[in-house]
Protein backbone atom coordinates (compact mmCIF):
# COMPACT_ATOMS: atom_id res chain seq x y z
CA UNK A 1 0.00 0.00 0.00
CA UNK A 2 1.37 3.39 -1.02
CA UNK A 3 2.66 5.80 1.63
CA UNK A 4 1.04 9.17 0.89
CA UNK A 5 2.54 11.01 3.88
CA UNK A 6 6.22 10.47 4.67
CA UNK A 7 7.87 12.22 7.60
CA UNK A 8 11.47 11.45 8.52
CA UNK A 9 13.45 12.85 11.46
CA UNK A 10 11.22 15.92 11.81
CA UNK A 11 12.35 18.43 14.43
CA UNK A 12 11.08 21.89 15.31
CA UNK A 13 12.02 24.17 18.20
CA UNK A 14 10.75 27.48 19.54
CA UNK A 15 13.75 29.02 21.25
CA UNK A 16 14.91 26.52 23.84
CA UNK A 17 11.67 24.53 23.64
CA UNK A 18 11.84 21.39 21.50
CA UNK A 19 8.28 21.11 20.16
CA UNK A 20 8.94 18.12 17.86
CA UNK A 21 12.00 15.94 18.36
CA UNK A 22 13.25 13.62 15.58
CA UNK A 23 9.76 12.35 14.69
CA UNK A 24 9.36 9.78 11.91
CA UNK A 25 6.10 8.26 10.64
CA UNK A 26 4.31 7.04 7.51
CA UNK A 27 0.63 7.22 6.52
CA UNK A 28 -0.69 4.76 3.96
CA UNK A 29 -3.25 5.61 1.29
CA UNK A 30 -6.86 4.96 2.25
CA UNK A 31 -6.16 4.70 5.98
CA UNK A 32 -6.94 6.80 9.05
CA UNK A 33 -3.87 7.80 11.04
CA UNK A 34 -4.27 9.16 14.57
CA UNK A 35 -1.76 11.65 15.97
CA UNK A 36 -2.30 11.58 19.71
CA UNK A 37 -0.90 13.29 22.78
CA UNK A 38 -1.67 15.78 25.51
CA UNK A 39 -2.06 19.48 24.80
CA UNK A 40 1.46 20.72 24.14
CA UNK A 41 2.81 17.34 23.05
CA UNK A 42 3.66 18.61 19.55
CA UNK A 43 0.67 17.53 17.46
CA UNK A 44 -0.19 20.95 16.01
CA UNK A 45 3.44 21.77 15.25
CA UNK A 46 3.81 18.43 13.48
CA UNK A 47 0.75 19.09 11.31
CA UNK A 48 1.92 22.65 10.55
CA UNK A 49 5.28 21.30 9.38
CA UNK A 50 3.67 18.53 7.33
CA UNK A 51 1.43 21.11 5.62
CA UNK A 52 4.31 23.52 5.13
CA UNK A 53 2.66 26.32 7.10
CA UNK A 54 5.66 26.22 9.46
CA UNK A 55 9.24 25.48 8.46
CA UNK A 56 10.85 22.54 10.22
CA UNK A 57 14.33 22.96 11.64
CA UNK A 58 15.33 19.60 10.18
CA UNK A 59 13.84 16.51 8.61
CA UNK A 60 12.15 15.52 5.36
CA UNK A 61 8.40 15.73 4.62
CA UNK A 62 6.53 14.45 1.56
CA UNK A 63 2.76 14.51 0.97
CA UNK A 64 1.45 12.80 -2.16
CA UNK A 65 5.02 12.79 -3.43
CA UNK A 66 5.29 16.56 -3.10
CA UNK A 67 7.32 18.87 -0.90
CA UNK A 68 4.74 20.92 1.07
CA UNK A 69 6.95 24.00 0.98
CA UNK A 70 8.00 24.12 -2.67
CA UNK A 71 4.81 22.56 -4.12
CA UNK A 72 2.23 24.39 -1.99
CA UNK A 73 -0.21 25.27 -4.78
CA UNK A 74 -0.23 21.81 -6.34
CA UNK A 75 -0.49 20.13 -2.95
CA UNK A 76 -3.38 22.21 -1.66
CA UNK A 77 -5.45 21.28 -4.70
CA UNK A 78 -5.43 17.75 -3.29
CA UNK A 79 -5.49 18.33 0.47
CA UNK A 80 -8.29 19.33 2.83
CA UNK A 81 -7.70 20.88 6.25
CA UNK A 82 -9.94 21.40 9.27
CA UNK A 83 -8.44 22.99 12.35
CA UNK A 84 -10.15 23.05 15.74
CA UNK A 85 -9.55 26.81 16.01
CA UNK A 86 -10.69 27.70 12.50
CA UNK A 87 -11.55 31.33 11.84
CA UNK A 88 -13.81 32.45 9.02
CA UNK A 89 -15.72 35.62 8.29
CA UNK A 90 -18.68 35.65 10.66
CA UNK A 91 -20.99 37.92 8.65
CA UNK A 92 -21.31 35.58 5.70
CA UNK A 93 -23.94 32.95 5.02
CA UNK A 94 -23.00 29.29 5.16
CA UNK A 95 -23.84 28.77 1.50
CA UNK A 96 -21.83 31.82 0.47
CA UNK A 97 -18.78 30.62 2.41
CA UNK A 98 -19.04 27.21 0.77
CA UNK A 99 -19.34 28.79 -2.70
CA UNK A 100 -16.28 30.99 -2.10
CA UNK A 101 -14.31 27.97 -0.89
CA UNK A 102 -15.41 25.87 -3.87
CA UNK A 103 -14.30 28.63 -6.27
CA UNK A 104 -10.70 28.13 -5.11
CA UNK A 105 -10.48 24.60 -6.51
CA UNK A 106 -10.59 23.11 -10.00
CA UNK A 107 -12.86 20.17 -9.19
CA UNK A 108 -14.72 20.92 -5.96
CA UNK A 109 -17.20 18.54 -4.39
CA UNK A 110 -20.91 19.36 -4.25
CA UNK A 111 -21.05 21.37 -1.04
CA UNK A 112 -24.84 21.08 -0.79
CA UNK A 113 -24.51 17.31 -0.67
CA UNK A 114 -21.79 17.58 1.98
CA UNK A 115 -23.92 19.93 4.10
CA UNK A 116 -26.70 17.34 3.92
CA UNK A 117 -24.41 14.48 4.96
CA UNK A 118 -23.14 16.50 7.93
CA UNK A 119 -26.65 17.46 9.00
CA UNK A 120 -26.49 21.21 8.35
CA UNK A 121 -28.25 21.48 4.99
CA UNK A 122 -30.89 23.71 6.58
CA UNK A 123 -28.22 26.26 7.54
CA UNK A 124 -27.36 27.35 3.98
CA UNK A 125 -28.85 30.82 4.46
CA UNK A 126 -27.72 31.19 8.08
CA UNK A 127 -24.85 33.51 9.02
CA UNK A 128 -21.77 31.71 10.29
CA UNK A 129 -21.90 33.76 13.51
CA UNK A 130 -25.39 32.41 14.24
CA UNK A 131 -24.32 28.75 14.18
CA UNK A 132 -23.88 26.82 17.40
CA UNK A 133 -20.43 25.48 18.26
CA UNK A 134 -21.35 22.01 17.02
CA UNK A 135 -22.82 23.37 13.78
CA UNK A 136 -19.65 25.38 13.12
CA UNK A 137 -17.59 22.24 13.65
CA UNK A 138 -19.66 20.35 11.07
CA UNK A 139 -19.31 23.27 8.65
CA UNK A 140 -15.53 23.25 9.06
CA UNK A 141 -15.46 19.55 8.16
CA UNK A 142 -17.55 20.32 5.05
CA UNK A 143 -15.07 23.04 4.06
CA UNK A 144 -12.20 20.56 4.44
CA UNK A 145 -13.97 18.13 2.08
CA UNK A 146 -14.93 20.68 -0.60
CA UNK A 147 -11.58 20.34 -2.47
CA UNK A 148 -12.38 16.64 -3.13
CA UNK A 149 -9.07 15.92 -1.42
CA UNK A 150 -6.93 12.81 -1.54
CA UNK A 151 -5.73 13.58 1.97
CA UNK A 152 -7.56 15.43 4.73
CA UNK A 153 -6.22 16.73 8.05
CA UNK A 154 -8.79 16.88 10.85
CA UNK A 155 -7.96 18.47 14.21
CA UNK A 156 -10.35 17.47 17.02
CA UNK A 157 -13.05 16.99 14.41
CA UNK A 158 -15.97 16.11 16.71
CA UNK A 159 -15.35 18.57 19.54
CA UNK A 160 -18.66 20.21 20.42
CA UNK A 161 -20.82 17.50 18.84
CA UNK A 162 -23.23 15.36 20.80
CA UNK A 163 -22.82 11.58 20.89
CA UNK A 164 -25.22 10.93 17.99
CA UNK A 165 -23.63 13.59 15.77
CA UNK A 166 -20.15 12.25 16.56
CA UNK A 167 -21.14 8.77 15.41
CA UNK A 168 -22.74 10.19 12.26
CA UNK A 169 -19.42 11.88 11.45
CA UNK A 170 -17.58 8.61 12.08
CA UNK A 171 -19.82 6.83 9.58
CA UNK A 172 -19.21 9.52 6.95
CA UNK A 173 -15.45 9.34 7.43
CA UNK A 174 -15.51 5.54 7.28
CA UNK A 175 -17.30 5.73 3.92
CA UNK A 176 -14.82 8.33 2.65
CA UNK A 177 -11.95 6.08 3.72
CA UNK A 178 -13.52 3.17 1.86
CA UNK A 179 -13.52 5.39 -1.24
CA UNK A 180 -9.76 5.89 -0.88
CA UNK A 181 -9.53 9.07 1.20
CA UNK A 182 -6.50 9.24 3.50
CA UNK A 183 -7.19 10.90 6.86
CA UNK A 184 -4.79 12.24 9.47
CA UNK A 185 -6.62 13.24 12.62
CA UNK A 186 -6.00 14.35 16.17
CA UNK A 187 -8.45 13.52 18.92
CA UNK A 188 -8.76 13.35 22.69
CA UNK A 189 -11.68 10.90 22.40
CA UNK A 190 -10.25 7.42 22.74
CA UNK A 191 -13.50 5.77 21.56
CA UNK A 192 -13.18 7.84 18.38
CA UNK A 193 -9.59 6.71 17.87
CA UNK A 194 -10.57 3.08 18.38
CA UNK A 195 -13.48 3.38 15.94
CA UNK A 196 -11.60 5.17 13.15
CA UNK A 197 -7.83 4.76 13.29
CA UNK A 198 -5.88 2.07 11.47
CA UNK A 199 -2.61 3.27 13.00
CA UNK A 200 -1.65 5.78 15.67
CA UNK A 201 1.38 7.62 17.03
CA UNK A 202 1.44 8.95 20.57
CA UNK A 203 3.59 12.02 21.21
CA UNK A 204 4.94 13.11 24.57
CA UNK A 205 6.93 16.35 24.79
CA UNK A 206 7.64 16.21 21.07
CA UNK A 207 8.88 12.64 20.94
CA UNK A 208 7.05 9.56 19.73
CA UNK A 209 6.49 7.15 22.61
CA UNK A 210 4.40 4.69 20.57
CA UNK A 211 3.59 4.01 16.92
CA UNK A 212 1.42 1.13 15.77
CA UNK A 213 -2.15 -0.11 16.01
CA UNK A 214 -4.58 0.34 18.89
CA UNK A 215 -4.39 -3.38 19.68
CA UNK A 216 -0.58 -3.21 19.73
CA UNK A 217 -0.74 -0.25 22.13
CA UNK A 218 -2.93 -2.28 24.47
CA UNK A 219 -0.71 -5.36 24.34
CA UNK A 220 2.53 -3.41 24.81
CA UNK A 221 1.15 -1.57 27.81
CA UNK A 222 -0.28 -4.65 29.54
CA UNK A 223 -3.59 -2.79 29.87
CA UNK A 224 -7.01 -4.15 29.01
CA UNK A 225 -8.47 -0.93 27.57
CA UNK A 226 -7.05 1.50 25.06
CA UNK A 227 -7.74 4.58 27.18
CA UNK A 228 -5.70 3.03 29.98
CA UNK A 229 -2.97 2.13 27.49
CA UNK A 230 -2.85 5.72 26.23
CA UNK A 231 -2.46 7.02 29.78
CA UNK A 232 0.22 4.38 30.38
CA UNK A 233 2.27 5.75 27.48
CA UNK A 234 1.90 9.44 28.29
CA UNK A 235 1.17 11.61 31.30
CA UNK A 236 -1.25 14.45 30.48
CA UNK A 237 -0.58 16.38 33.68
CA UNK A 238 1.70 19.37 33.91
CA UNK A 239 1.89 20.28 30.22
CA UNK A 240 1.12 23.95 29.61
CA UNK A 241 2.19 24.57 26.00
CA UNK A 242 -1.26 23.93 24.57
CA UNK A 243 -0.69 25.43 21.11
CA UNK A 244 2.24 23.21 20.11
**SS-based class:** alpha/beta
Summarize the biggest pleated sheet: 6 strands, mixed
Number of domains: 2
Count of DSSP-assigned helices: 9
Name the helix and strand elements from N-terminus to C-terminus, one letter apiece. Answer: EEEHEHEHHHEHEHEEHH
Give the helix level as a range of percent: 25-40%
Q: Work out the strand percent.
A: 25-35%
**Which strand order do you get reading across the main beta sheet?**
5-6-7-3-8-9
CATH structural fold name of the largest domain: Rossmann fold
Mean pLDDT, as a whole number? 90
Low-confidence stretches: 237-241
Question: How many beta-strand runs?
Answer: 9
**CATH architecture title of the largest domain:** 3-Layer(aba) Sandwich
Taking all Cα atoms into account, the compactness measure Rg is: 18 Å
The CATH fourth-level homologous superfamily of the largest domain: P-loop containing nucleotide triphosphate hydrolases
Give the termini separation. 31 Å
Summarize the structure.
The chain is an alpha/beta fold. 34% of the residues lie in helices and 25% in strands. The protein contains 9 helices and 9 strands.
Key structural traits:
9 helices, six-stranded mixed sheet, 244 residues, alpha/beta, 34% helix, 25% strand, Rossmann fold, globular, three-stranded antiparallel sheet
Amino acid sequence: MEDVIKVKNLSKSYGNLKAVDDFTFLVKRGTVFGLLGANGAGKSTTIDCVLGTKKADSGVVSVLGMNPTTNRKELFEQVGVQFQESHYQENIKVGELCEVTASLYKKPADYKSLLGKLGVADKTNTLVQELSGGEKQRLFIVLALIPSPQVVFLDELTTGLDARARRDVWQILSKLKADGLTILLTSHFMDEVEALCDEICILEKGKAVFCGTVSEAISQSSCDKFEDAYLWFTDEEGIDNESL
